[in-house]
Amino acid sequence: MITRKSKREVQQMQDAADLLVATHKEIAKRVKPGVTTLELDTFVEKFLEEHGATPEQKGYNGYPYAICASLNDEICHGFPTDRPLEEGDILTVDMVVNLDGGLADSAWTYAVGNVDEKGQKLIDVTKEALYRGIAQAKHGNRLGDIGHAIQSYAEAEGFSVVRDFTGHGIGPTIHEEPHVPHYGLPNKGIRLKEGMVITIEPMINEGDWRSKMDDNGWTARTIDKGRSAQFEHQIVITKDDAIILTDQDK
User: Fold this and answer.
1) Most buried among 14, 44, 63, 115, using CB within 10 Å?
2) Is residue 238 within 8 Å of residue 194, measured between CB atoms?
3) Cα 67–72–76 angle (5° rounding)?
C-alpha cells in the first residue's frame, strides 16, 4: 500500500535528514587514501549515537553494519572492510538514519584522491541523472517519467542503468511501496501524488548493467568488473517541484 505522509511525519523525516546530511559531510572529510571503510562505519555509528539517533539498516534482515560501503565494482550493499582506501578508488556510502522514529535515506559516491577521467565522468553523470529524475518527480507525473529521464541521459553518456535495484517509498519502515525504477518509459507506471515520500537512487555502471551477488548474500557487483556509482536523495512529492529532504546544499 502506498501512503501519503502528514506534515508531522515529513518533519520527523526532515529532522533525521538534517542529521544524515551532517553525517555525510563528516564522511566527506574522512574519505582519503589509507582510511578503511570499517573506520568510517565506526565513526558513523558513534556520531549518530552522540546525536540521539541510530543506523536503521544495522540489523535490518540481519545486515551487520551502520553503513553500506560499496567500492569500485560493487554496486550496492557493500560490507565495510579493513582494506585501506587507495588513490583512485570510487566509494559509495549509503545509510539510513532513525531519529525519534523519523527515517532518512541517502547514498553518496566519493572519489578517493584523484580519480581517472572516465571514473570522474561516471560520478558526474550519475549525480546529474539523479537530479534529472527528481525534476520529473511531481504530482500528476508517473514513475516512468522519472526512470526515463535517468535512463535516457545516462545511456546517451555511454553508461548503463542498473535494473536489479530501485528506489522506494520510505516511512515508517525502510522499504515501502512503490518501487521506483531508474529506467522505463514516459507516461507509464504509478501516478505520483502530493504527500508521497520516495527515494530516487540511480546506480550507474561503466559497462554492463547486470549484477551478481557476493557470497555474503548482500553485496551486488557488476558482472564485468566495471565500476559503479550511486547518488540517492529522499524527496517529498508536491504539486510543484519535489522537496529534497536530504539536500546537502541548503
Assistant:
1) 44
2) yes
3) 40
Residue pointed to by grid coordinates 504527500: 195
Element at 75 (helix H, strand E): strand 74-76
Asked if residue 206 belongs to a known ligand binding site, the reply is: no
Whether residue 77 is annotated as binding a ligand: the answer is yes
Question: Residue 103: helix, strand or coil by DSSP?
Answer: strand
Q: What confidence tens digit (pLDDT) does each residue in 65-117 have?
A: 999 999 999 999 999 999 999 999 999 999 999 999 999 999 999 999 999 99
CA torsion angle 39 42 48 50 (round to 10): -100
pTM confidence score: 0.97
Q: Is 94 annotated as a binding residue?
A: yes
* pLDDT band at residue 118 under the 50/70/90 scheme: very high
- What does the chain come to in residues? 250
Does the annotation flag 182 for ligand binding? no
- Top CATH class, 7-244: alpha beta
The answer on whether 168 is annotated among ligand-binding residues is yes
